[in-house]
Specification:
Layout: H1 26-29, H2 32-41, H3 54-66, H4 72-79, H5 93-103, H6 106-115, E1 128-129, E2 132-133, E3 135-143, H7 148-154, E4 169-177, E5 183-189
Antiparallel strand pairs: 1-2, 3-4, 4-5
Amino acid sequence: MSGQCVITRKIAVAEGVFAPGHLGELTQIVPFEMVDEVLIECGATQQRLRKLPARVVVYLLLAAALFEECGYPAVWSKLTGALGSLPLPKITATGLWHARCRLGVRPLRALFDLLRGPASAVRTAGARWAGLLVVAVDGTYLDVADDPDVRAKLGKGANQYTAASGYPQVLLIALVACGTRRQSSTRSSAPASPANPSSGVA
């Protein structure tokens, strides 16, 4: 090829059906190497080959936070929507729930610590005022499973027609640094309600 040259490069990808790119934009924001490192650090890698590897369960839970109005099967469909031509294992709602329980909370907490970003430097624009860190507080409500154990702990919302309606909810509060958008801390609690008047953010 006169006047032309060809440049090749090697790209590391995860092995198996659930390779990066197959799981949508999340793998562009949260690289699989980062997830694998967190799983190893937390001792949460699977001990035997399963239909749902631990890495895939992490992405499932991240996607569930984006599509909180969907159940796990619907989130799974969105996550694997581009894999229709591949031989995916059949996953049930119960299987997804068990996979989440096996993973536990430690890997997600460690991943949060990695992703929330560095602390602001002294000269970061908008980060400090009069030597003090400028922060903002924001919050949201998240629906959780509507089962007897959860209802006993969190209670349910009430309205003018009924004393208990809708799904139980948790209140999530985040403290965010304005200059870097770094989440300094998060707390969750059952929202205060007539059925649960003593609730508050711990």
